[in-house]
Each structure stands twice: as C-alpha cells, then as structure tokens.
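Final report, results section. Input specification for complex C-07:
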Amino acid sequence: MHGIYLVSDARALTARNGKPYLALTLKDNSGQIGAKRWDSSDEDVRVAKPGKFVEIGGQVELYKDVPQIVVNSLAEAPAESVKPEYFEAPPNFDPVALKRELVAMLRGLEDEHYRVVAEAYLNDEAFMERFAIGPAARMMHHPYKFGLLEHVHSVMTLGQSLCDHYAWCNRSLVLLGLFLHDSGKVVELIGENVPGYSVEGELLGHITIGINLLDRKLQELGEQVPHHKGVLLKHIILSHHENAEYGSPKPPMLAEAQIVHAIEALDAKMNAFLRENELPAEQEDATGALRYSKLLKRRIYTPPPK
Amino acid sequence: MHGIYLVSDARALTARNGKPYLALTLKDNSGQIGAKRWDSSDEDVRVAKPGKFVEIGGQVELYKDVPQIVVNSLAEAPAESVKPEYFEAPPNFDPVALKRELVAMLRGLEDEHYRVVAEAYLNDEAFMERFAIGPAARMMHHPYKFGLLEHVHSVMTLGQSLCDHYAWCNRSLVLLGLFLHDSGKVVELIGENVPGYSVEGELLGHITIGINLLDRKLQELGEQVPHHKGVLLKHIILSHHENAEYGSPKPPMLAEAQIVHAIEALDAKMNAFLRENELPAEQEDATGALRYSKLLKRRIYTPPPK
Amino acid sequence: MHGIYLVSDARALTARNGKPYLALTLKDNSGQIGAKRWDSSDEDVRVAKPGKFVEIGGQVELYKDVPQIVVNSLAEAPAESVKPEYFEAPPNFDPVALKRELVAMLRGLEDEHYRVVAEAYLNDEAFMERFAIGPAARMMHHPYKFGLLEHVHSVMTLGQSLCDHYAWCNRSLVLLGLFLHDSGKVVELIGENVPGYSVEGELLGHITIGINLLDRKLQELGEQVPHHKGVLLKHIILSHHENAEYGSPKPPMLAEAQIVHAIEALDAKMNAFLRENELPAEQEDATGALRYSKLLKRRIYTPPPK
Amino acid sequence: MHGIYLVSDARALTARNGKPYLALTLKDNSGQIGAKRWDSSDEDVRVAKPGKFVEIGGQVELYKDVPQIVVNSLAEAPAESVKPEYFEAPPNFDPVALKRELVAMLRGLEDEHYRVVAEAYLNDEAFMERFAIGPAARMMHHPYKFGLLEHVHSVMTLGQSLCDHYAWCNRSLVLLGLFLHDSGKVVELIGENVPGYSVEGELLGHITIGINLLDRKLQELGEQVPHHKGVLLKHIILSHHENAEYGSPKPPMLAEAQIVHAIEALDAKMNAFLRENELPAEQEDATGALRYSKLLKRRIYTPPPK
Amino acid sequence: MHGIYLVSDARALTARNGKPYLALTLKDNSGQIGAKRWDSSDEDVRVAKPGKFVEIGGQVELYKDVPQIVVNSLAEAPAESVKPEYFEAPPNFDPVALKRELVAMLRGLEDEHYRVVAEAYLNDEAFMERFAIGPAARMMHHPYKFGLLEHVHSVMTLGQSLCDHYAWCNRSLVLLGLFLHDSGKVVELIGENVPGYSVEGELLGHITIGINLLDRKLQELGEQVPHHKGVLLKHIILSHHENAEYGSPKPPMLAEAQIVHAIEALDAKMNAFLRENELPAEQEDATGALRYSKLLKRRIYTPPPK
Amino acid sequence: MHGIYLVSDARALTARNGKPYLALTLKDNSGQIGAKRWDSSDEDVRVAKPGKFVEIGGQVELYKDVPQIVVNSLAEAPAESVKPEYFEAPPNFDPVALKRELVAMLRGLEDEHYRVVAEAYLNDEAFMERFAIGPAARMMHHPYKFGLLEHVHSVMTLGQSLCDHYAWCNRSLVLLGLFLHDSGKVVELIGENVPGYSVEGELLGHITIGINLLDRKLQELGEQVPHHKGVLLKHIILSHHENAEYGSPKPPMLAEAQIVHAIEALDAKMNAFLRENELPAEQEDATGALRYSKLLKRRIYTPPPK
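Structure output:
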C-alpha cells in the first residue's frame, strides 16, 4: 500500500531490544489506522509529528484482530500532493457565512464602549484568523476545524433570544461576553484537524490567557473604555465555568455573567449529545437504547425506532 | 393602633415565668412587623396561624431599636374586612394572560401522544387551580402568588426559542417536560402569599410527587401513550436538578432533558438576581456596588450610576 | 467441540476489514469462556443475545494465553435441550421456604393498614413471580437468581430482631418498609442468571420505579389506607440509600426509615464480603491475607490459617 | 433567691467598662437558667467551673424576655449540701444490671484469646469505674451519666442477634470489638452530668486513645494473645466510623468490623431520634409534624395523633 | 465625650420609623467601640466612611451590657488633628529595613531576565508605594498596615533557605515568584488600618489581577524576557493556592511553584497561629488550653504554664 | 540465557487449561523484565516471592513487541552468588553520614524531656536498624532502600532553618516531631529494594502504628516525660497529613505541628518532582515540555533547552 496521511498521534518508543520505533496513528477522510515504523531514525521522528502530512509505503497486517500498517518508507508529503478535501470532513455549516454573521452581531452592539472593544478584536488579524479556524476543545465539544467559530456563533445567536426574553439585562455585555468567553483558546489549543493543547495552554488555561488578551486590548484603548466595563468583561471570562471545581475561581456575580455561563455550558453539552449519538448501543430494549458517553460521563438515550 | 394583618410567621413559646406567649410576624402591603402576644390563650394559637388574616389591637414599642407591636386584642379577621389588594403586591404580569398562553402552547404540541398527556393535566381542575396560583418556591425563586405560573410560562417561552435553535431536538418533549418539571410543587408547597412546605413535601420532595402525579395520568390514559414516552417524561422530571447533590439521582440522559435543566436553572437564578438587586450595598466604589445574596450564595454586582 | 451455552455478553463489532463479527462470553455451570464468531450474520446477532441459550460448534484456540472458542456454527438452542441444572449454581438456600416465611411475616403485620398494603402486593401475581426469582443487583450484592428474595428475606428477619430491641419503633412500618425498599428492582433489573439493567431501569432507577408501583397500589386501595401511612412508605423507599450522593434525595426522617437503611446497607455489604472472600490474595504474611474487592472498593482481610 | 446549682457553663468576660464578669449557666433537676456575676473576682472564677456545685444568692430579672439570675453571693457548695438526686435525672434503666449483663457477655466469649483481652479490661478498676459512669458523647448520643454503658450494652445485645443471623462471622471478635469501639471515651470525655472534652481528647480523639489503651493491655498480655488478633481489634476501633471524613482513616476491612460500624452508628442515631422527638414542631399538618434536629442535621417526623 | 476616631465600619440603615441612622464602629489605638448616629443626614453618610477619621461628640450609654456612643456631632477630622500614632499599633518590625532587604534580594537575582522583571516592579513607584504599606489580607493573615511587606519579606527569606536545601531548583524563579505571588493584592485590598476588598478585587481576585499586572510589565519589556519565563511567572501566581477549591485552577506544575505554595501557605498559617494565641481559652486542664480559631477553622493549643 | 535476578513481582495464576503458571517481574541493576514460568510447581511459588533472589534459566521471546523470559529452570539463588551491587542503584548520598548527622541533631535537642524520648528510640536497635535502611513509601516518595532515612534527615535539616525563622516555636518539639512523623513506616512497609505494605500496615496505617510505638516508649519512660509532652508528640504524628481526607483525623492544632506537616509534605513532593522528571515528554513546544506524573496527579513541566 502507498498513500498520504495526516499524523494524528506519534510516539517514539524504545523496544526491549534497545532499538527505537515509532507508533503512529494516521488519518484521512475515511477514518484512522495504527502504524508501526520499526527501527525509526531521528529523521523519521522529526517528519512524523502530529498534525503533519506524511507519505507512507508499507503493508497492512492484522495485530490483535485489528489491521495496522507496517511502514517501509516514510517521508514528508510534498505540499502539492496534499488535497485538503481528503483530510477534512467538510463542516455541515458555511464558516464564511458564520463569521460574517458574527462580525455583524459585534458591529451592531448598542453600547459604544463594548463596540469599541469588539472592534479591537475584529481588527486584530492574527487573532481573527486563528479564531475563525480553530477548534473549541481537544475532545469535549466542537473539537474540529472551525469548531470555535461554530460554538461562538451558536451561543451569540442564542444570546440574542435570551436577551429578548430577559430584556432588563445588558444585551451588549452578554453578546460581547459570549464572543470573548473562550477567546483564550486561540492560544490554549493548537492544530485544527488534530486539536491539542499548547504547553502555555496547560500551564495557564484559556481563562487566564483570554483575560490577558483582553487586558492588552484595554491597555491600548485606554480611556475610550470606562474602567468598570473592562472589569466586567474580565469577570465574565473568569466566571464562565461557574464554580471553582470547573476552573472559575469566582461565580457569576451579575445576571449577564450567569447567562453567558448557562448558554455556553448548554451549547457544549448539546454538541456532545449530538456527536455521541453515533456510539454503538450498550443496552437496547422496547424503551429505547443507551450508549455510554465518556464526554458527558453518563449513559445517553435514543428512542426506539417507530 | 388597630388593623388587619396577614400572619406570616407564628411561634408559640413559653416564657421562663412558665407562661405561654406568641411571637408573630405580621404582613401587609407596606411591609412586615414583629409582634408579641403575652399570656396567649389556646384560642390565640389557633387563630394566629401563618397564612391567616387577623384583626389586631395593641401598641407599638421599640425593642432593640426596632418597632414591634405588643398585642392587646387578637381575633380572626372577618372575611369581608380582608381587602386582598392590601395584602398582595400586584404581580407585574397578567396571570390570566400567562395561563392562556401556556394553555395554547400545550394544545399546540405537535406530538399527539404528548398532547394527550398535556390535555389530561389541563382537564384536571384541582391541579390547574393550584398550579395557576401557587408559588414556585419558599424562598429561592418566584416565592409568591402566581410564581409557579410565571416561572413555567417563562421557561416554556424560552423553550420555544431553544427548540428553534436546536432544531434536531424533540420540541414537544421539551415543552411538555418544562410544563411538568415542577408540577409536584402543587403538593410540596402550601400557601400563596406566605409560601411554606407541606409535611408531605418535606418527606418526598416535588420531584417524587410530580412523577407520581404523572404516573396516575399515564395509568388513566393507558395505551393512548406509548410506554417509552411516559418514561421519558418521568426521566425529565427526575433529572431536572441535573445531579445527585441537588436532588436528581439521574443526570439528563437525553438532549431534551438537558435543555429542560438548563432553562429552568437559569430562569430560577435570573429571578433571584432580579429580586436580590434590591438589597442594601455592602461595598461600593467607582467600579460599582456589591450586595450579598443569600439565595445565590455569592456577592452580586450593580454598575455605578452613569 | 460442540455444546449448549448461556450467552452472558455479546458485542457486535466491525473488524478493520469492514466485516462484522461477534465477541461473545458463554457460560455454563462450570464457568465461562470467550468466543468469536467471525463474519457474523444478522441472524447470528439476533440469536446470540445475552440471556439466551445457544448451540455452538467450533474449536478452542489460545488467544493471549487464554483459551477461546472460534465459532463455526451457531443456533438457538432448542428449549428441550436446555437443562437448567447445567446453567445455574443451585442456591445454598431453599427459595420456596424463604418465600413462604416472607409471606408469613407480611400476613402477620400488626397494623391493619400496612397489612392491607402488603396483601395488595402478595395478590399481584406478576409482581410476586418476578420478585421471587430475580436478582438484587447486577454486581454489587445478591446478583443471581433468587437474590432479591434472599436479600429481602434476610433483612426482614433481621428487622424483627431490631424491632424487638428498639421496641418503641413501629414494627409493621419497619417490616413493610424492608419488603418494599427494593421492590422497583423487578423492573430495573432484567435476567436472572445474567442480571442486567433495563433501559427504563437506567432512566428512572429502582427507587422511583418502586414508589410508582406503590402509588398505584395506594390508588387502588383508596381510603382503606390513611394518606400519611402511604407517604411514610414512599419516604422509606426514597430514603433507603440515606443520602443524595447514593441516590436518596431525602435522608431518613423517622427512626423506622433509619433502621431500614441500616439493615439493608449492612446486608448488601455482608453479601459482598462473603462472595469476595474467594478472590485471590494480593498480600499475605503472618498477620493474614488481603484481597482487593472492587465491589467494596477496599482491601478485605482473611485471617492466617490456624 | 438562694440555692445550690450545678455549673454547666462558665465564661469569664470583660465588660466594656473594663471590669470582669462571669456569664454562667446553672442547672438542677428542673432545667437550667442563665446567670451573671458582675465584677467577678479571681476566686469567683476559680469556684464557678463547669461541673462544680455552687451556692448562689441573688435575684431573678428578665433579660430579653428571659429570666436570669443576677448573682450577689457565690461560693462552693459544701459537699454535704449537694443532694445528687436534685441534679440528675434518674436514668430509665438500671446501670448496675446493665453492667452485670455486659460483664457476663464478655466472660462468655468463646474465643479464649479475646476472652483474655476482655478480662484485662474487666480487671482494670480505674477503667471500669469510668466506663460504667461516663457519657458516650458531649451532644450527639447518650450524652449523660451512664450513657457510655447504656450505648455499649445496647450494641453488644444487638451484636448477639446479628451474629446469630450472620453465623459465619466471628462472634467473639464482633462482641469484643463492640465493647472496645468507644473505650477511648473514658479519657476523651470528662464530666458526667455536664459532659465535655478533655484537652487530650481534642488533640488525639477517642479512636487513637482507645487503640493506645488496647496496645498497653496487649503489651502486658504478651504472648497470651496471638499478634494478628490484637491487630484486628485495633483495626475495628480504627475503622468504626467507616470513612476518613468521619475520622476513620481505614474502612472496615473485614465483615466483623463492618458489623461493629453498622450497629454502633445505628444505635447512636436511634438515641438521637428518641431524644430529639421532644423538640417543638416546626411544621404540622394532616400528614404529621416535623421538627429540626441539629444532631441529625435533618428534619424528623412524628405521625399525626390518632 | 469628644474625640477623634478612625471609622472601621459604617452601615446606613433605616429605622422602622422610616428615619435613617448610621451604625458605626470607631477605632483608636486603645481598641474599638460601637456608635449610633440617629437621624443621620446624607452628609453624615458621606463623611463617616470606613477608613476615614471623624471628630465625634456625644455620650456613652450601655446597650446590652456594652457601652456605645450616641453621637451628637459628627464631622470630618481636620488632617492636622489626626495623630497617626494614636491610630496604629506600631508594627513589631521596621518596615523601612524590610523593604530595603527585599529590594536587595530582588536586585541580587542571578538570572538576568528575572532580574529585569523585578526591576520593572521596583521602578513602578505607584506599585511599590502601595506594596510597602498595604495589608496582606482582610482577616486571614497579616491584616494590618505593612502586612503585605512583612509577609513577602518573610517568605523570600525562607525561600532562600529552601533553595539552599533544594539546590537543584531555580533560585531566581522561586524568589521572584514569592515576590509576585500576592502582588495583585495592591488592587484587591483597600485601606491599611481597616483592610477591605475593592469591588474590582471581589470580581476578579488577586490572582487574576496580579497576572494582568505582570502581563503589562512583560508587554513593556518585550523581547528582553524570553516568552517561557513570563509564562512560568504567571503560572506560579496562578497556582499558588495549589488547588481549584482554594482558587488556583492549575496545580503547581514545576517544583519551584510547589515551593512558592508551600512557603506562603505556611507563613500565612503561622501568622494566624501567632495572633490567635491571644484568644480566650475555651477548655483548659493539666494537658494545656484550647481556644477556637475562626481563621484556622480549628481549635488551637497552648501548653500548660510551667 | 541464565542469571540471578531479584523478584519484584510474582503472581500465581491458573491458565484456562487448568494448569498453574507464574507471571514474574525480575530486576537487576540494569532494569527489569517480565517472565513466565509455565506449569509452575508449589515449590516454584514458594521460591519466587517478591524480594527474593532467584537463579533463572530460560530463553527470551518477544511478546507483544516486548521481550520476556520463558523460564525453564528456577531456584533460590545461593546467598553467596548474590552480589548486592548488582541489584541496588547506589544512593546518591552516604547513608552512614546521614544517620550520624540525624543522631547528632537528636542528641542536641535542648528540651531534656524530648531528648529523653529521642534517646529511647536511638537505643532501640531493632527500630534504628529498620529505620536506617527502609524506604519511605511504596511509590509516592523515597520508595527505595535508605529512603526513610533520606527523607527524615532532609526534613530535620529543613526544620532547623524553619525554627531559626519562626524563632518563637519550640525547636525541640519540631525536630523530634519530624523524626517521629513517619516512624510507623518501619512496620507498615516491608522490603527495601522492592517496597511493599505489610498486612498490619494496611489494616492500621503508619500513623496509628507510630503512635503505638511512641506510647510504648512513653510507658517505659514513665514520669521522666511530662504527660502533655507525650500527648503533643502523638498529636504531631496524628496530624501530619493535615486533614481527614489524607488520613489525619485531627488537623495540626499547634504551630509546631503545622511546620511538621508543611515540611514533610513539601519534601515528599519535591522528591516526586525530581524523580518524575525522567518521564518521557507528552507535549513539547517552544515554551517547554510536559510529562504526566501519576505520583503528583498532574502534568509537570521542564523548560526548553537553552
């Protein structure tokens, strides 16, 4: 066999005979497969990093009932041979349209100070580029290319409905808070098709990183934004996981922060329910079927066929 | 002084001199005041129960800087002298309109089985009467006459928006689940202007009571409702507090149950934020003001005046 | 090899070559063994469900040092070929005698109202049939045919001693509470020799199911049973796991409920101690031996041989 | 007024005018009353220690609706004036009979080694004297003279029934374990009519103290008792609160330890249910009455009058 | 009476007669006293803020056995009448010397990058002024003028010893981490003699604030400090409470962060042990005395006099 | 192949063919390897216990890519063939020197009573022999020969620095407390090169065992040591894990106990950081590298190469 694959996991191990080998997981549009590169060279290790495309030659063998590739040749795939459409499931939404709508929501904020803050992000090209393409998590929710955009667009859309309902709340604060709540993920997460954490992300977390990014914008904007409005935005980022156990040292202390938490937590779980519905059923009878979701840490239910 | 009051708290105590006395809290539209009835008779105790109206004569004295009534005469207030408008803050919504809208939402459920279940409740006059007038809690949220109706109407309205957004969910199940989630409160809570718990309510809780009420409806409806749909409605009631610590032995195991939990928990907290905003500030500076909310178990924030 | 087995686990999997196969666990009186049915048909999946008896042909192979059967032929076992005594370890008690004693205890309840409730269950043939044969749990305690009967008989016997000791308690309430505490397990659990959970059982749990069953009996009995006595029985079922963490939203609020909890929790653990004593020792020295019990989540001790 | 009282609480405080005063709680058979000794001397402080009897002169005044004594004269009560029957509610059991039965149970242990250990305690006069008179706790359960004896006698009696039931258990180990489980309380607790903690009790706890007492007995007995039997008795003392949160660093690791825990925890709670039943009702309706028990940290129920 | 006091608490309340009054706590060198200003004006409220000095006229009355001032006249104290030495207990250390030593420790850091960061703080006059005078907490530890300086000086001194011992650690990182760990308290806390929290402090906490302050310094310093060194300093601030429950979303992930946590947590507790030792004893016998420390949430021990 | 190995793990298992076999882990200075002894005899099981040296013949095979020995001959290694230096990594410290320094610190205690207690341990040859050679834990920290000595020496050295800093503390109590805190490990742990728990250690834990050892010394010393000083030493041992969750039923109730806890907990973690630094990196980028430490239950960081 011969082909081009995306490396989604690579571990350099030493066999008991003292020789190094590489245990790889390779991905393309059709799924993934394990692979072994025996007697791997330093060059192999350098080439076969998670997130890189490699050109592989070898043969498929069964190992514990599961096919795996024993790799004979391994090289960086020439950029021109990598057809992105072979490696990404096309999202079931249009990222360009989502981004356009999101920008429109931000530019339409009523409160002029919050609008100025939003504009500072929209004008930060490096930020927006990463924001528009990155995943929202490594596993839990929206863990795929454009996932962060999909999640934030979804919660801002919902945010509008909730602010219609709780009309006494500050709509601009809710919407900007929703835009910013996961903004630190542009640094915390790396990769698109194979999301992972950066070392900085592990050491600080997206909440701290996001607040630092915001603080820099506020420093640049100076007196254009009243001090307390900056503090509130930071508080909303800080409290969006609701309690200490989940990483928020402060609970939501204003209604707008509570809304941000409620929407974003629901949207994350809804995404997990949707994706985990594909798992094989563990139990099934006339009442329906159950499958165990590691993401949600519980069994989830599907109704019986009609 | 002389007047008619609603008894909101009454404790029959024995003074050290061996004589009984009554410590009362009296309420009308303008607020509440403490009162003492020295050398109280058995008749006094019978008359002055929480939730009853009494006619009081006495004088106001200061006790630890706080005025209280020393009661000289105490009698049940004649029904004709009790003007309801003196004892209830008029709700800032129209309960008749809310109920009409709620009924319309239930009668409009798409799924015929769930519609049949809804109809069974709508036709249960005793249930609907209590449902339309009772409070939603003793303290935490919507703890006042019509509070349960206001809460359920609010969450069903929101539920419609959320089902528009997560269009892959079963809209009928979400809406009926929201209608039923707190239905056991018609037994758990007693009183309207002075909500309290019934002894049955304390022993069983509204979740268990609500599921029993539903089971009776399902028994009556028999084969009109597929078994698994009844089970799902019970599961939604059972899991609406989300985890064991808060009284739900099972977590939401389908997306519709997750939505019911998210909306109703948010609506309860929003009601608390709104009402607790009236508390006196404990801290105040240029950033804004903080007051401590016992309901939310945290400090809550108000922005500085513009 | 050729033989008749009870299927205790069956998973329909897809091999990497795209073909389906069945991974089975087969049981008879002598123990259990793994089996693989390669290229399994839909018919195979239908036939080889957990709890069913199958007729197997194939050969035994070693896989990772462990023998397993590679299945060549697979069919439903003809009812007449299934000899129950080959598939069940005979219980070390006489289920008929236990049931007779249990019925006698219930018919001897002093309190006439509680006796009426008990009678309603005894007259419910479908209930009693399942009650007398089913297991008490999938793993934790008495997880075998007749296990529920053994457990309930044991705790009612103990309950008599405890009521002799705490003579100020309501003996009828304790004994009936013990009879009912796990009654929802007739729906929660399925299978006898291979206990499992029903989907309804997972969605609602045996506590909620048991309370619903009781509510139906109480509805039928109407005014024959004073309202508060029904509430107390429900409360005892509700609180028998003692705290929220273990699935009881309310703690025992009367001494009789506390006794029910104490006895049934002890009996479950005693059953686990007894069965786990068979595990291989992990540590052993002059002080005795220790083995790790997953059920009890701790090491358990056996004294040194004399 | 003039009289002899038992001091149950005494706090030496300094008034804002800089002068010292004593705030006392005084007890006799009929109940308790607060008292103030203004401008107290060092001698007053020395005399009026909790657990001592004092001769008081003064007058009764009302303070916040509650009578209290303003003390004019204060002196140690002459031993001959203190009539014990005025200061102790007679127990509703015969402590002499209980002790006799307890001794008989211990002398009847089948296992000769455990019988030797029991004998070592029975021969320790100082231990037995304190054991036979002391309370079992400061508040939680059996907090009165002879309370420890009552509790231990009760659990050993129950222990016999449980060992009849679980006949595969080591009866001698269970019974001796029950005798020893709270033995450290002879040092942890001080006082009889007014139980309190010793400073050593607070620093070490009755579990550690009890194990040390046992270790000394075992050191004296030397080879008369096999090593592992001493370890098991220590383990039963150590684990009798079942988990770390309640002060047992090790869970019960043998069935006999599990029984000791189950019985003694139940007996403590039953004692609390019994005593707290006297509290005033907080809620009452046709279903019954509820009162809040601080000891049990929950509401407790009483049925409606027949 | 007539005098100048520091306001340490001020609550604007409304009496039942509808008139406003002020409940004050006033402090000077000799202790504190309560005060009431009846019929308070808006001007009174403005003047009598916690942390301000006021000139008071009135008379002392006893209220519930405790003297309090009924205020007749109330005005801002003229700056020239306020003698600081009447309002501050002189610290038992020399703040000037401590600051000098602390600066020397920072200027002596071996690692040039960390030294540059330290210098950026030393050159920030506003920061250093507040740092050198402010308290370290409102209650828990070092809650007095110069308390932050005392705490940080203490932990840096200890840090040197620990780095001598664990010589494989990065000494510069430990010492700078200790200097920065509580740096956000310059914003979180307000007041010196009467420490309190700013609203921003409550919304964000000193950890988030301190990391923002550091991020600004790092932005200014740009490429003078390698990126990863800035991340590590932020991580040390973030993790210095060790776990989520105490406000650190990330645990110490390098040995140097572990040392910072260990030292600063110990120093805070040692300060509490030292100050709480002054509390009145609750229990006392030949083993010693115990007093209850709210700060440490436990009883603390003092040995018996020799 | 043929050689002498230290058995570090041995499990007697039964294959599905009904025959027994031994699964061994063998160790020498160069690392460890798995081994299988098929058809093992009772004699094999007796010989191949963890901690024993065996002489092995067999051949090396690959099993799941990992070499293992299939054992053909197995016998106890003759004592004279076992060269200790082949089986122990030499410690990177001099145990003789450490012990000498530790003895000197104890003999130099200022407080004569505590010095007498220390002397009682130093004169207990059996204790000191085990103390000087044993490990400090099975896995967590210092889990190797001389590890307990290394740990105790380290914390006593640090203790001197801390007592210099907190000069108001009782230096003798801190140092003796540090010496004794883990003294029960001489019974709790067995083995040196392959540390394990004794059955008594699992049933009682080193805290209880250590307090018993101390109590025996105190019994021997009688009136030479004031009662309260013995109690304090026991309290320090009891509270050195700081809270119930980690096995200390009492928190440190005096400053000296707090210091003992702080130092020993830090030293244990520092040892884990140091050893776990050898683990392979899981994540690595310009900020540095992270590896997952099971001991510390978190990721730990290493800076990027310079």
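Chain C touches chain A at residues 12, 15-17, 190, 196-200, 202-203 (CB under 8 Å). The radius of gyration of chain C is 23 Å. This concludes the modelling results for the funded period.
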